[in-house]
């Protein structure tokens, strides 16, 4: 077993950990994360617009009468998430190259906006279609952000920049240094989208359509859950590794679901990140809240008794590093198996519960530190059945963890007894100097 785990760590976990720190993937990850405050705040206005109360109530009728006004904050935040993410990716990628990060973010935004074609309306002027500013345009945002900053880097390394005298303030010098890269990017994007009339968003949609479809399938939701648990079992932050690749897709699903709710159409996707957050990672990766309850109710070793009491409150708020490293689960064959496979079981149950209509799909980004029942209720727009599913999944994880936990607990108990006997023998063999 140990030889097999050493093999996996050497040939899979270590290379994947290095991949997660790849410059462009890290910039995408940090850019997406930087947009979360806007996504969270914007999605909360969807709950206000469509409150979880009967349609006959005064609150619901008021929300429908003022629906346009209520949705304005949503449309200026979550609905245009790709615009915020574009700036974040450009900023972070430029920063990693030691270029001016502000210029990197700005040139990325300019490039992204040039993928959109304004529409001229009588008595209104030019109007920019917003459909591709949300989750639908996320992959395009990633591509043009990387392209724009790479142009900046090329110009910088080849000295294709305007150099200002040393007496010029640094902020002014940086602005002129970005002038040539900005001109090139703007001219290039104008040639593609305006002169040649190429719809880049349609091309990207066609290219990523198989990935988008696969990511929302049962296999597509089970694969990241398995890999995240697998990497955590070696002490590698699983969501940092897998999230660098999967999070843009999850955010695309979330944006599409929110747009569908705002438009009054059926919600299209099962598996935004909120699906995993509230129905799979209950208590954190590995659904370890069930393990903490097993510690509280069944622990016989003094160490696990104390650990259960210590980690209960953090686990209720989905912080489980103390459980993962304190138990430990890392490199612990007795607990790795349930840690990896329990989330896959709850994922399967939750997936079919959503597909079959037993619960509503998630479309609201609630803060991840909320207790799971509350977060699930909010993320589904106030579906009480989501709370029931969370409680069912906690019960399942608790029951499955018990036999594995008891084996490990007995091992620690035997070690504690052996250590106690050794201490007694050592104490009795000491000479009495009284």
From TrEMBL:
* One cellular component term from this protein's GO annotations in UniProt: plasma membrane
Location of this chain's protein in the cell: Cell membrane
Q: Which Pfam families match?
A: PTS_EIIC
Q: Which GO terms describe its molecular function?
A: protein-N(PI)-phosphohistidine-sugar phosphotransferase activity
Keyword Membrane belongs to the record: yes
Q: Which UniProt keywords apply?
A: Cell membrane, Membrane, Sugar transport, Transmembrane, Transmembrane helix, Transport
Topology with respect to the bilayer: Multi-pass membrane protein
- What are the BP-aspect GO terms? carbohydrate derivative transport; phosphoenolpyruvate-dependent sugar phosphotransferase system
Residues spanning the membrane: 32-52, 72-94, 101-121, 133-155, 176-198, 218-245, 278-303, 323-342, 349-366, 386-405
Domain PTS EIIC type-3 positions = 8-404
InterPro entries from the UniProt entry: PTS_EIIC, PTS_EIIC_3, PTS_IIC_cello, PTS_Sugar-EIIC/EIIB
Say what the protein does. Answer: The phosphoenolpyruvate-dependent sugar phosphotransferase system (PTS), a major carbohydrate active -transport system, catalyzes the phosphorylation of incoming sugar substrates concomitant with their translocation across the cell membrane.
Protein name according to UniProt: Permease IIC component
